């Protein structure tokens, strides 16, 4: 059974169409990279799956738990790193501390997001997502604007976290090397009638 199955008839933003008909199915343990030019609808597709974009028609089957890592870290600035996990996931402080340790932030639990570097904020976002124990993980360019060494480190962290759970992942990226490294399947969104094609 697919962890995620989307049959999209179309989506719009009120001023015109955004994405045409397409079907996407992702199996447990599979990582699908969505690639394509800017503005073609990759992030909108993630937002549809994540329930954040409402103007669409079709059917979404998503039987399990969902977590999302956004392009920019979406953190609670007035709460500590530990609380950013416990308050948003419902997990215990002990479980949140384990999540922080898994991304090498064990000593930063009392720090506020503004006291963390961008790389550390990205780690916290990743820890929070995995603390949800998701069946489906959506990632919208999670390593963008990081220098190559830090991006490589973050991808390594993601690979280690992913190895411990058979989750289905959909990642949007503009970096071919990132897609090749992380994905088991690469799909291109290009606006043609058969909108998703193997890259």
Q: Supply the CATH architecture of the largest domain.
A: 3-Layer(aba) Sandwich
**Secondary structure category:** alpha/beta
Order of helices and strands: EEEEHEEHHHEHEHEE
* N- and C-termini, Cα separation: 24 Å
CATH top level label of the largest domain:
Alpha Beta
Report the principal-axis shape: globular
Describe this structure in words.
With 199 residues, the chain is α/β, with parallel strands linked by helices. It has two domains: 1-65 and 136-199, Rossmann fold (3-Layer(aba) Sandwich), CATH 3.40.50.300; 72-133. The chain is 32% helix and 25% strand. The protein has six helices and ten strands. The chain has helices spanning 42-49, 81-89, 93-102, 118-131, 148-163, 176-182, and strands at 4-12, 17-19, 22-26, 31-35, 56-61, 66-69, 136-140, 168-172, 185-189, 196-198. It has a six-stranded mixed beta sheet with strand order 6-7-8-4-9-10, sandwiched between helices. β7, α5 and β8 (168-172) form a beta-alpha-beta unit.
Quickly list its features.
single chain; 199 residues; alpha/beta; Rossmann fold; six-stranded mixed beta sheet; four-stranded antiparallel beta sheet; 10 strands; 25% strand; globular
């Amino acid at each position: 059974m697919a962890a995620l199955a989307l049959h999209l008839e179309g989506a719009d933003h009120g001023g015109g169409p955004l994405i045409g008909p397409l079907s996407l199915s992702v199996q447990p343990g599979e990582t699908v990279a969505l690639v394509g030019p800017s503005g073609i609808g990759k992030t909108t597709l993630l937002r549809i799956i994540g329930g954040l974009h409402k103007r669409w028609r079709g059917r979404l089957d998503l039987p399990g738990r969902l977590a999302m890592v956004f392009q920019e870290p979406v953190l609670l600035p007035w709460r500590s790193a530990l609380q950013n996990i416990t308050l948003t996931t419902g997990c215990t402080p002990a479980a949140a501390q384990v999540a922080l340790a898994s991304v090498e932030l064990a000593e930063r639990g009392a720090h506020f997001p503004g006291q963390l570097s961008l790389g550390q904020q990205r780690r916290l976002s990743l820890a929070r997502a995995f603390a949800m124990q998701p069946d489906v993980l959506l990632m919208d360019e999670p390593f963008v604007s990081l220098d190559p060494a830090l991006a490589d480190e973050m991808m390594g962290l993601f690979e280690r976290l992913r190895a411990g759970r058979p989750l289905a992942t959909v990642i949007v990226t503009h970096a071919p090397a990132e897609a090749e490294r992380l994905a088991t399947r690469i799909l291109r969104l290009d606006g043609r009638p058969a909108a998703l094609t193997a890259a």
